[in-house]
């Protein structure tokens, strides 16, 4: 969400209209360095692949999350809106949600 705020700032002050999508998932990953001539750090696994699919099937300027992320965040201070079922390559249809932002806190009573 901070990245979205920063991109909005860049767009406002550079007279551009950049946008991006974000996909989130949760779970185990495998990480390591590959290559001998030009080593690169990389991550692999189902968690990474599904997060990538959340990005590629998402909408511009939105954060799309899996049902597992929804379950983790729903009782925290975040607003999530159901997007519905989305066809995800290699997974079939998955229920997805948009992370809309932090839930506004009630104003303290004086």
For this entry, give a set of tags:
two-stranded antiparallel ribbon; 3 helices; single chain; alpha+beta; 4-stranded mixed beta sheet; Alpha-Beta Plaits; 110 residues; 28% helix
Biggest beta sheet summary: 4 strands, mixed
Question: What is the H-and-E element order?
Answer: HEEEHEHEE
User: Helical region count?
Assistant: 3
3D shape = globular
Radius of gyration using CA atoms only: 17 Å
**The CATH H-level homologous superfamily:** Nucleotide cyclase, GGDEF domain
User: Please, what is the average pLDDT?
Assistant: 91
Beta content comes to 35-45%
Query: What separation lies between the terminal Cα atoms?
Result: 30 Å
In CATH, the topology is named Alpha-Beta Plaits
Number of strands: 6
Oligomer: single chain
CATH class: Alpha Beta
CATH architecture: 2-Layer Sandwich
Helix content: 25-40%
Low-confidence stretches: none
Structural class from helices and strands?
alpha+beta
Explained architecture:
This protein is an alpha+beta fold. It has a single domain (2-102), classed as 2-Layer Sandwich (Alpha-Beta Plaits), CATH 3.30.70. The chain is built from three helices and six strands, in the order H-E-E-E-H-E-H-E-E. The longest helix has 13 residues, at 2-14. It is globular and about 50 Å long. It starts with a helix and ends in an 8-residue tail after the last strand. The model has no long low-confidence stretch (mean pLDDT 91).
């Amino acid at each position: 969400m901070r990245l979205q705020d920063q991109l909005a700032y860049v767009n406002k002050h550079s007279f551009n209209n950049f946008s991006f999508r974000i996909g989130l998932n949760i779970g185990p990953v495998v990480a390591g360095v590959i290559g001998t001539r030009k080593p690169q750090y990389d991550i692999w696994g189902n968690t990474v692949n599904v997060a990538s699919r959340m990005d590629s099937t998402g909408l511009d300027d939105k954060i799309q999350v899996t049902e597992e992320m929804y379950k983790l965040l729903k009782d925290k201070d975040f607003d999530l809106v159901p997007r519905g079922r989305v066809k995800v390559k290699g997974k079939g249809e998955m229920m997805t949600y948009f992370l809309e932002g932090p839930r506004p806190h009630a104003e303290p009573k004086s």
